[in-house]
Amino acid sequence: MSIKVVNITKSYGSFTAVKDVSLEIPEGKLVALLGPSGSGKTTLLRLIAGLESPDRGQIYFNGEDNTHRHVRERRVGFVFQHYALFRHMTIFDNVAFGLTVRPRKFRPSKEEIRERVHELLRLVQLEGLAHRYPSQLSGGQRQRVALARALAVEPKYLLLDEPFGALDAKVRQDLRRWLRRLHEKLKLTIVFVTHDQEEALELADSVVVMNEGRVEQTGSSQEVYHQPANPFVYGFLGRVNLFQGRIRGGKVTLGNAEFTAEWSNQSEELPAVGYVRPHDVELSRTPQHAQSLAAEVRHIYALGSLMRLELKRLDTQETLEAEVTLQQFAELNVQTGDTLYITLRNVYVYVEPENRFVQAALPAASALALRANG
After folding, report:
1. What is the three-class DSSP state of 208?
2. Who wins on pLDDT, 321 or 140?
3. What is the dihedral of CA 293, 230, 33, 75, to 10 degrees?
4. Apex 85 CA angle, 83 and 90, nearest 5
5. Most CB atoms closer than 10 Å: which of 136, 216, 227, 300?
C-alpha cells in the first residue's frame, strides 16, 4: 500500500513543525525519514499514523484520503523508541493485546490468537519466550516484541519512530539486518524515523532528508550521499571539509589549488565553498600532482580500522581531516608535526549567490557536469 502526503503543515502555537511537505512512499518500500532533532520527522510520522491532525494538507493511503480518519481506521502498526510494553503482561499477552481488545464481532477466537502470536514470535526469533515478562528480556528482544505486537493486527503500514535509538551499537547493528530481512519477507510498506545517517543509508530503499520542517532531498542512499541537493544534505550525511574559494568561468580556486568545472558564467567571479569528504583527501610524503598542497599534521586519531588525521593547510591555514586505512598509515609512517602533501578528490563546490553545486575535477581530468539546486 502506498502513502502520499500533499502539502502537509502542522504547527504547535507559534512553532511550525512541518512546513508544506509533499512526499510519495511507494508500496512495499522501506523509507527512512532522516534529520536532526527538531527537523519535523517524528511529527510527520505521527501525522501519517493519525496520532496528530494536520493544519493543512492531505494524506492518502493507496489513493484514498485518510486525512481525517481516526488512527484505528488507518490500519497502521506503530513502534516507539522505548518499546511501550506492558510490564505486568507476559510476552504472549503483549503481542496478543491488539487482537484481544477488538470488538467481539471482529475478535479472532482464542485458538486463532494463540496461533497468530506464536507465528509472530517465531518470525521475530523469540519462540520459547512467550511466558516471560519484559523485564526478563534484553533491550533488543523487547524491541522485537514491540514489532511483533505491531504486526499482530495485520497492519497495511508499519511506522517506526527511532526504533533502535535506545539500544547499544552492536544490538542496533544486528537489529538493522534483522529488520531488512523481515521487510524482504513481509513486503510491507515501512517508514522509520532516525537521526542516524549510517542507519538510514544502510537500511532504506529511499531516504527523505528533513531539516526545519521541510524536505531537503529524497532519493536512494547513493543519490543523497553522492549527489546532494544542497550544503545541508552534504554536511548532514557525513564528515566534511570546507574550503573557501572563488569560481570564474570554468576555474575554481581553493587557496593554491585550482580545479576545472563546467560553469556557464564566464565573466563574473563569485565566492564559492569547496566540500570534500575526509576519505577523498589523498596523502603522500611528496607532491603527487601540480595541485598537491602542503599541510602539517596536527593530531592523529585511531578509529579501529581507520586512522583520522587532523591537518592544517600551509597556504590558507584552514584545518581539514583525512581518513586513511591502517596500511596506508603504516606506509606513510607519519607523526604529529610532519608535513604531508594532500590531493583533493571528488570536490563539490557550492556557489553561494547562485545557489548551485558544481562537481569539480583536477585540471588534468575532464570537466564534470554542472548540477543545479533550482
Report:
1. strand
2. 321
3. -160
4. 135
5. 216
* pLDDT value at residue 367: 33
For 282, residues 6+ apart whose C-beta sits below 8 A from its C-beta are 288, 322, 342, 343, 344, 345
pLDDT computed for residue 163 by the predictor: 82
- The per-type count for the chain, helices as H runs and strands as E runs, is 9, 22
How distant, in Å, are the alpha carbons of 170, 197, 296, 324, 367 from that of 301? Answer: 22, 21, 15, 11, 35
Contact 344, 281 (CB under 8 A): yes
Residue 231 DSSP symbol: H
**Distance of alpha carbon 371 from alpha carbon 136, whole angstroms:** 54
Cβ proximity of 340 and 297 under 8 Å: yes
Check if the beta carbon of residue 297 is closer than 8 Å to that of residue 311: yes
Residue 260 pairs with which residues in a beta bridge? 251, 361
Report residue 274's pLDDT band, with 50, 70 and 90 as the boundaries.
very high
Determine the residue type at 272: A
The rounded distance, in Å, linking the Cα atoms of 17 and 361 is 39
Mean of per-residue pLDDT scores for the chain? 89
What's this model's pTM, rounded to 2 decimal places? 0.85
